[in-house]
Amino acid sequence: MNVSMTVNGREVSGDVEPRTLLVDFVRNDLGLTGTNVGCDTSQCGACTVHLGGMAVKSCTVLAVQADGSDVTTIEGLATNGQLHPMQQAFWDAHGLQCGFCTPGMIMASVKLAEGNPGISDAEVRHGLEGNFCRCTGYENIVNAVKLGAVAMAGGES
To answer: Under a CB-based contact definition with an 8 Å cutoff, are residues 73 and 34 in contact?
Structure first.
């Protein structure tokens, strides 16, 4: 089957088997390896991307289901070499260690924080329940999301 979609602002297309997962299309066909495959069971969130404006686990979406859609991966967040405010916040607040979960964590956090500059610790923790990190104690991730939420709203990070 042929699929066409806009990925990170660029029109792309490709031939895929009907069972091809969006994560595999993004990684293998498009070479965008920032989206990680962590579990293949939708448990970890490492594969989170934005699909049609929503954060989704791309291991649960077939590439054919994304046909005609807008997809943003971690590579598409930065603009003109400038990190997205949430990416910068994760850097500034040390919200990562090994970095494997970080792309999915950031993609979920962007949608979680949109329009909510005063997001609470509890809201962050609840909103990221589907994203696992095996390295950190989550405290710096929570701090990073709160910092990023303020920065996304135009405040200083």
So the answer is: yes
- What is the residue range of 116's domain? 85-152
Q: Residue 133 domain-assigned?
A: yes
Residue 79 bridge partners (DSSP)? 82
Cβ-based neighbour number of residue 79 at 10 Å = 9
Where helices occur in the chain by DSSP H, the ranges are 22-24, 85-92, 102-113, 121-127, 139-152
Pairing of strands 10-15, 54-57: unpaired
Whether residue 157 is contained in a domain is answered as no
* Axis-axis angle for helices 85-92, 102-113 (nearest 10): 120
For the chain, how long is the longest CA-to-CA vector?
A: 46
pTM over the 0.90 mark = yes
Number of structural domains, the chain? 2
* Element holding 126 (H helix, E strand): helix 121-127
Tens of pLDDT, residues 33-62 = 999 999 878 899 999 999 999 999 999 999
Tokens 């686990």 label which residue?
57
SS3 117: coil
- Report the Cα 116 to chain-centroid distance in Å: 18
